[in-house]
Amino acid sequence: MVNVVTERKAEESHRQDSANLLIFITLLTLTILTIWLFKHRRFRFLHETGLAMIYGLFVGIILRFGVHLPQDLSDVTLTCAVNSSPTTILVNVSGRFYEYSLKGEVQDSKGHDVPNAEMLRKVTFDPEVFFNILLPPIIFHAGYSLKRRHFFRNLGSILSYAFVGTLTTCFVTGLVMYGCVVFMKVIGQLGGDFFFTDCLFFGAIVSATDPVTVLAIFNELKVDVDLYALMFGESVLNDAVAIVLSSSIVAYQPEGDNRHTFDGSALLKSLGVFLGFFSGSFAMGAATGVMTALVTKFTKLRDFPLLETALFFLMSWSTFLLAEACGFTGVVAVLFCGITQAHYTYNNLSAESKSRTKQLFELLNFLAENFIFSYMGLTFFSFQHHVFNPLFIIGAFLAIFLGRAANIYPLSFLLNLGRKNKIASNFQHVMMFSGLRGAMTFALSIRDTATYARQMMFSTTLLIVFFTVLVCGGGTTPVLSLMQIRVGVDTDQDNSVTAPDGMTQRSTKHESAWPFRLWYTFDHNYLKPFLTHSGPPLTSTLPACCGPIARCLTSTQAYENAGQLNDEDTELILNDGGGLMYSDMMVSTDAHGMPTPSTSQAGLYSLAGTSDDPLDRELVFGGTRLVLPTDEPPDPLTSFPPPPPSPPLLDPLRHRV
Amino acid sequence: MVNVVTERKAEESHRQDSANLLIFITLLTLTILTIWLFKHRRFRFLHETGLAMIYGLFVGIILRFGVHLPQDLSDVTLTCAVNSSPTTILVNVSGRFYEYSLKGEVQDSKGHDVPNAEMLRKVTFDPEVFFNILLPPIIFHAGYSLKRRHFFRNLGSILSYAFVGTLTTCFVTGLVMYGCVVFMKVIGQLGGDFFFTDCLFFGAIVSATDPVTVLAIFNELKVDVDLYALMFGESVLNDAVAIVLSSSIVAYQPEGDNRHTFDGSALLKSLGVFLGFFSGSFAMGAATGVMTALVTKFTKLRDFPLLETALFFLMSWSTFLLAEACGFTGVVAVLFCGITQAHYTYNNLSAESKSRTKQLFELLNFLAENFIFSYMGLTFFSFQHHVFNPLFIIGAFLAIFLGRAANIYPLSFLLNLGRKNKIASNFQHVMMFSGLRGAMTFALSIRDTATYARQMMFSTTLLIVFFTVLVCGGGTTPVLSLMQIRVGVDTDQDNSVTAPDGMTQRSTKHESAWPFRLWYTFDHNYLKPFLTHSGPPLTSTLPACCGPIARCLTSTQAYENAGQLNDEDTELILNDGGGLMYSDMMVSTDAHGMPTPSTSQAGLYSLAGTSDDPLDRELVFGGTRLVLPTDEPPDPLTSFPPPPPSPPLLDPLRHRV
After folding, report:
1. Member of which family (chains A, B) (predicted)?
2. Average pLDDT over residues A591-607
3. Cβ atoms of residues B232 and B211 within 8 Å
4. In degrees to the nearest 10, what's the CA dihedral of A227, A228, A229, A235?
5. For residue B104, what is the enclosing H or E element?
6. What digits encode the pLDDT tens for the residues B93-118?
7. B456-475, pLDDT tens digit by residue?
8. Res. A400 pLDDT band, cuts 50 70 90
9. Shortest Cα distance, chain A CAs vs residue B78, angstroms
10. What ipTM describes this predicted complex?
11. For residue B213, which phi and psi values (nearest 5 degrees)?
């Protein structure tokens, strides 16, 4: 009989779980339908994530105030003589042993005043769900869809913003918050402990800007590619920095809550943790990416797209598990795995797998993202330990504003000293305005809500996310037009409209800083040929003594390609500087997906012929191949529409808002 | 300090979980690479699922005998005065409350002789994972990819095999097993209780045949379409029957283990449970399918394939959750949802969403299937309560053989009395031989391994699965050629090669039984126009009094299509009988995905002109549109290659083995 009761209860619990998940699925379905309605009616003010959040808020209100379930009083409190809380305990109930697993510590288990706490507790997910299930596909997708060309061209600036900038934001925010907390303590507005490390932790979690909302708008409006690359690169990488940074700050105070003075060895340890976590996760991510590239290169898996896609998916997932199993940060590893996969493996995939993997991760990203945002809305009402402190909230908003400003403006000034292609002040304002906080900030803040400080942080963070997503996200379009940012830019087109002399072709390469050029040469000569079918054969780039190895590692396709560079990234990185002359002609596809170049072939070939540098000539031929990827050039009389009446050069400003 | 220790333990446990999952991911990756190697070398003897199983076996051996981890002695046994085992308990450890959730009853918690039990226990998944995560995508994919044309033509036979046949198998197997168990009891070979209901339960779980392995081979070899439809339809539906049947049998003995005599009311209750579960799950599945069809019909979601795919995925998933939340069987609901989605919603999707949804569920199915099979291999060594009883095993093999025979041969005989297109005896032998047991049988048997009877069942079931997948699966190709089954059949081609008079065109419709014709007419006149854009407008099929409603529900596209039937299924169901004359000409696409009909248009149109029945003429036009989905007929002189030199009629036997 006991057994039957237990089984029935387990069944009941399973049904309840299904019903809860169903709430979220319904929410997401509603969100999708409303998004469609918005898109259909060209209503751009509210992004889908904002919408998901608002729906979540409504459901949260209903669950909190509308539904009244009979309280489940089956909780049994056992008072035990054990002096630790093991992960598993066996309970001996009249001769039968039952296994129980630890779910976590419960605060003030009885005596809360919320009427249907049980119901609310049921719709609460384990915070680790975010880190282990929902964030990885989002972050991987971000890495996998980095616009490589402009990303690599702005690599230095992006890394500066992501590392130096995020650290600056974190410390500035932390210091402002510390000032605020000290002030609150003085006037007696603080209801619990709040230490300096808590302030720094808060700084770390709110310094992760979200790539989702703003970039969706950027993408839709086809905003200036350099601005896009800077924003996207920064927000993707600073997620990684923020997550490692917050772990390091937690590592600073491992001894419990009793010591909160400055400690040199703890600081060193934190620094070590930061560097170790970051480099370890980076290495894991890159390693599995490289392994996938090698496997897809040296097998003929491309004949079976299903197998290839499955392998790609599993290897990418294994990055996460490997990093977590080794004690590194899975989410960070997944990001670098995504970048590596996009840079190398993607070139080895069959055309079908390319679209399959893209679509798969696009879908996973979409679902996970909207799930997180609707959960965010819901948890605003279902979370039972909110601590809303007006002073703290005002301080926090001030702090994130100052923190963001301390990141963008000084760094941009410093970067502009070295950049030929300056970051204009209107770009800086947009970057300042568009620093939304989203999924990563939420996941980091909900991870631990045990103490008073963390609860106050969580509540404040939720408000910050709501505000930035709804107000900053919604205001992006007006701000873009206010700041006169170019929109409607073809992503494969360059923005150097200011130098119409046709000689900027080689400038991108030369204008790049030397570390980038060094990396580019290494990547192009050794890594690309080693990991993909493109680039020059290794036999020609490696020294003669490595001949046998080079022959083994070079695929037959690489030899075939030896004369002609069909390395997409090369074109993307090096050739874009010369995009002016035929920028509007490059890769504009008609409705049937067929390329429709709008100038004749002769012009291109003659342009290639006038170039002195043989590499550049190759590159222009590369560009030609990009425009017309057919082996026999089709007859322009029958296949292509006539060139458009107005050549793009006549009106360089027509893309401005 | 206590807190820190707990956290560290949770972290350790998380790392261990990641490592375990990594084992499976590595296994799957290895499987994929080996499958590729097999496919690459055209080695067809072992299917991927068999391979996954064998790899799982190896890893199981290594974990069991190779790895020796220090025993984790953190289990604490509490002896409590509570007289039930609640799902959640709070443990008061020196003032702090920890929440523990019930994992299940533990048998002989101490004193087992396996050296690294902890390690093995760690790689053991909760059996509910199979029902809630892994089976749904497999079953949905099966429903979604049912070959509709031949499925509906053989619907009566398929339903007979699935319902009457599976019930027969279950009872015959159960009776044989009961005889075996009684014999074992007499000679003292039985180490525990084994009741008649246990025998029936065993019969139910081993009566679920697996559609995976054999049909993969059938698909690859392009086996006769009717045989394919019979096998696929039966094995997909009998999964549903078996799962509901096993629940009903469990419901027969709810009072505990003390009464095992015949009980009329319990039998009635079982019957009620069976009918209730089945019809409820069917209704849920069909309802969400219909809802998805309506949503995709009445919104213009097709302009945004990502949204459409996400909606499709979420709605299909919600079927499962809805059914589980209402206490029905989610897996069964998902099957019928899949069939409904394929029959209605699929027609409303945009071309991109069609391929996206297909590819997505193909991938999910592939991953889940291989995961289950590798887990099966692993659990053979990691499961710690195996009861291998030679007599029982021999009895079980005999019982499944007899049970399968009692399903196929008598039913085929009865069905052949009514069928015009007889089920040949070689088809029957193949169906008899190819009744593999797979994922569903495994999931059902691992769900409950608490008692001696269930443990013996589980061990025996594992052996049956191994044997059938490896031996029967591997032997399918030889058996097909031994039985002289036609292979290399175009799936869009009919098998009625024996009536080359060109007048079989209408025979398929007339040869179908009246319930099918009734359903077909209803579906074609009312459901199709209501749920999709195809079929005749509702305004013309509904009575005049329903005019306003009909106008609301009919899409503009349906009016446009009114003259011409572009209902794919119609063609598939009704037109296939006439496929003989131009069967090899239909829908053969060239490498660029463009249709290349191999006879001139004139022949088709004249064929259409000679038909008396206006419906049939429409249908032939429908076939024409299928061949050439362009609005302006292209010039045959420039667009199409010349007709092939040998018409298919000259050599009707060339497709035979």
Report:
1. Belongs to the monovalent cation:proton antiporter 1 (CPA1) transporter (TC 2.A.36) family.
2. 38
3. yes
4. 100
5. strand B96-106
6. 666 666 666 665 555 444 444 455 66
7. 999 999 999 999 988 888 88
8. very high
9. 5
10. 0.78
11. -65, -55
B507 pLDDT above the threshold of 70: no
Determine which helix (DSSP H) or strand (DSSP E) holds A104, and give its type and residue range. strand A96-106
Name every chain B residue with its beta carbon within 8 A of the beta carbon of A94.
Answer: 83
User: For the ranges A308-312, A358-362, B248-252, B612-616, which has the lowest average pLDDT?
Assistant: B612-616
Q: Which of B551, B538, B535 is nearest to B618 (CA)?
A: B535
Any alpha helices (H) in A41-133, and if so which ranges?
48-61, 117-122, 128-129
Q: Tell me whether A298 touches chain B (CB under 8 Å).
A: no
Contact (CB<8Å) B307/A100: no
Query: Which two structure tokens, joined as six digits, stand for A290?
Result: 């490289």
Q: What is the mean pLDDT of residues A575-588?
A: 32
CA distance, residue A151 to nearest chain B CA (Å): 25
Taking the CA of residue A603 and the nearest CA in chain B, the distance in Å comes to 30
**Higher-confidence position of A583 and B601:** B601
Residues of B within 8 A of A93 (CB-CB) are 80, 82-85
pLDDT at B552: 72
Q: Does A75 touch chain B (CB under 8 A)?
A: yes
By Cβ distance, the residue of B2, B85, B107 closest to A91 is: B85
Roughly what angle, to the nearest 10 degrees, separates helices B390-418 and B166-186? 150
**Beta strands B96-106 and B88-93, pairing class:** antiparallel
Contact A367 B314 (CB under 8 A): yes
How far is the C-alpha of A373 from the C-alpha of A385, rounded, in Å?
Answer: 20
CA distance B334 to B329: 9
The larger pLDDT score, comparing residue A437 to residue B622, is at: A437
Q: Which residue has the tokens 């030929």?
A: A420
User: How distant is the Cα of A101 from the closest Cα of chain B, in angstroms?
Assistant: 5
Task: For residue A260, name the pLDDT band (cuts at 50, 70, 90).
Answer: low
- 3-class secondary-structure state, position A276: helix
- Count of CB atoms within 10 A of residue B548's CB? 9
Chain center to CA of B633:
41
